[in-house]
Every structure is written in structure tokens, then in C-alpha cells.
Amino acid sequence: MSLLLLGGTADGRRLAKKLHQQGVSLIYSVAGLVRQPDVPCEVISGGFSQFGGLVEYIKQHAIVAILDVTHPYAAKMSATAVDASKTCCIPCWRFHRPAWEKQAGDLWQEFISWETLLPALKDKKTVFLTAGQLEQQAIDALTANEQQRQLLRTAVEPKVTLSDSMHWIKAIGPFNLTDELALMKTHNVDALVSKNSGGESTVAKIQAARALGVPVYMLERPTLPKADEIFTDSASCERFVVSAFNNGLTINGRTGP
């Protein structure tokens, strides 16, 4: 009987290691787009379609609970996890790190979608895009402005066609403030586009924008279906999961370790 931890984040890797150390049997799932995680447990990579879907995987591997520690913007996976848990009558728990909060000196504008955000960038000269992979439609809308340059930073090569005005930077966090300041100054960045990911790994770009007076165009977090338990503190999440397994988590007549 195992916990299925949906990972792909630094938080997921840390929780996997801590839970394993305390005797929780778990399987770690990762999309496998960037790098394989260094975790002391079984790892599955590439999603669940290879197993016939998440529901089938849960049934085949005696999963007694799901812990969703995916990226806060992985809305499709989080929704799938909740739906599958209901179908299989097992709990779905979620840990997402707290969002960044606006501080003195921050010049933030918040948007619910790319469609509402893109028009706000039309008068900018150099836009620094740090919001992950973009759809071709968003790329085309950005690069239609012949007076603008864009920097696109992602961990893996874009799957879309980039125009001559867009420069791709391959990089994986964590990032530090000195480097982020240098990058923005070198390229005369006058707009930063970001998701509100939270955490320490990529917060330096927000700090650099604050220091340089660069406005931040922030995509708000998506609204997710309610999980059975939701945590924003990793220590509380860890204690809860360990307690649940130590006290004989029982789902559909099956008892956890």
C-alpha cells in the first residue's frame, strides 16, 4: 500500500525524502520534461496515460492516498488527481507553497489569463518572459509588435516557433539576485512577466524588478478543485501524512502500512 506523490517541484522532492525517512511507502510521479528527481523511492516518469490513466494506475498499484505537490499552475494535473481520488474513494491531499505577496516598491499588475495580460505589454520595449512554456498564439501576439524585443527563459527548449525578436534563454533555478539584476540591466528590461509561483528558487527576479523599478505583469494562480486536505506549510503536511499512515490509513478495506 503506497502514497502516490505527484511531484516535479523542489517541494515535492523534499517531502518525498522526508516521508521516506519516516517509513511512508511512496511512489513519486514526475512529468520528466526537465530532469529525473533524486529521491529515495520508486519514480514513474512521463504521466499516467502509459498505464491507462491515473485511475487504472491507482487500482493496479494499491495506492491508498494521493499527495499533490505539483506546480501551483499545473491545474490540469491537480484536477485530474481530485477526480481520480473520488472515483477510487481515496483521499487527495495537496501542498502548494504560499504565493508571493506584494511588498513596498513592487509595481505589480495582476491578470487572470494571457488574453488579458498581453495587451498591457504593447508599449514595452524589452519584455522578460519567465512564465514557463507559451502557446504559439501567445508567442505570435507578442512578436507582432515590431518595436519590441522579448527574452524567453525556460528550462527546456520551446515547442513553438520563435520570431527573430525573441531570444530564448535556457536556465533552471534557483536564481540569485546578482545575476537577475545583471540580466535585466544588460537587456534594458522594462517589463517582467511571471507566474506567482512562490518559494525561494525564483523569487530573485521579483526582487530585481523591485530594485530596478521594473513593473511585473503577474499571472494569478488558477482556481483548483478542493482537495481533502490543503497545506501551505511543508512541516504540517509531513506530520499529517506520517500520522495518517502510522495510524493505519484505511481506504476501501485496504490498510496502509
From TrEMBL:
Keywords: Cobalamin biosynthesis, Oxidoreductase. Pathway: Cofactor biosynthesis; adenosylcobalamin biosynthesis. It comes from the Bacteria. Pfam families: CbiJ (PF02571). The keyword DNA repair does not apply. It is an enzyme of class 1 (oxidoreductase). One of its GO terms (molecular function) is precorrin-6A reductase activity. Its EC number is 1.3.1.54. This is Precorrin-6A reductase. It comes from Alkalimarinus alittae. The lineage of its organism: Bacteria, Pseudomonadati, Pseudomonadota, Gammaproteobacteria, Alteromonadales. The gene is cobK.
